[in-house]
Amino acid sequence: MEHLAMTHDKHRIETRTVHTGNHIDPTTGAVVPPIVMSTTFAREADGTFPSGYVYTRSKNPNRIALEESLAMLEDGVRAMAFASGQAATNAVFQMLKQGDHVIVPDQAYFGTPALMRDVFAHYGLTFSRVDMSNLDAVRAAVTTQTKVIWSETPSNPLLTITDLAAVSQIAHATGAIHVVDNTWASPMMQRPLTQGADVVMHSTTKYISGHTDVLGGALIFARNDEITERAHVIHTLAGAVPSPFDCWLLMRGIRTIALRVRQQAHSAQRVAEFLADHPAVEQVNYPGLDSHPGHAIAARQMVGGFGGMLSFHVKGGATEAFAAAARMQLFTRATSLGGIESLIEHRASIEGPTSTTPQNLLRVSIGIEHVDDLIDDLRQALNA
Ligand SMILES: *Cc1c(COP(=O)(O)O)cnc(C)c1O
What pTM did the predictor assign? Predict the structure, then answer.
């Protein structure tokens, strides 16, 4: 894999986000890399491929550049970019075989356990859902067949914190791998591979894109081993790869991720503190608050800050939560997260009838608007 910068160079991450994978185009001198839409690449008369490129499903210059940048962001040795976050999660489960067991958090992006339940259970994979903040419960759920322990921290939608180093140890003691969905924290806040995790998964749709205009996913690996090779086969053979244009958009997102996420985390802390003092709010879930049960662990492992996501419980029930969301003027009522615009969502209703999310919970993704404008909007919506 000559294309990956194995020696993540001496520069700091803010510098690397600007430069890694962004090479001056040798034919035109273009400072921003061109988008290579060609699906096929010419061969020499002797049948060789002088550029190293053959066919875009297996390798494309824009995807290679993105993968180089993603590996750098997560301190990994190799990354694979997928067409969506779910395609990346799917590839992890596709590495398993009949009878294998997966531990999935009881609180996670709803699509993760749904994939296990609605797709992989039919192929003979088994799974348990566990409170990942309770290490004894994780240990108790391990069986001789456990191959993957999946964690997501901070979790969706209650921002529960999982101790990444401790869960990595539990996984390794039983011969399983620890896969971490790092979508919510983003690599600017937390790098699970440095805490012992084996694979990081991202919905790049969120903070890595940052602009709510591209769908994507990624897996980033701590080592080049048989797991990485297996994932590579699934990646290029099953072919859930992103388009060159999507890769290019994601590269553009990465160039500003350091500035964006730092601002979002700073504003989220201010918003969380405002909400915690508001009489119409019953509870605020944000790991940056001292009162959060996972605060100490988060402070240790979220080296860049506590992130731009939070949720809160409006006093009352679904009616009061819907009414508050309806009065928001700056926050858009929409699902998804990690973009430059602030979003608010009544999570239980999007998750549907099987949801266990409290009916009075609103989930917030903080954008890069001025934080005082965001607080003013929340104040008018909650004071009404
Ligand atoms: C959005 C999301 C996913 C799924 O990613 P898609 O890009 O929508 O397929 C997975 N995990 C988390 C935490 C997410 O927020």
Answer: 0.96
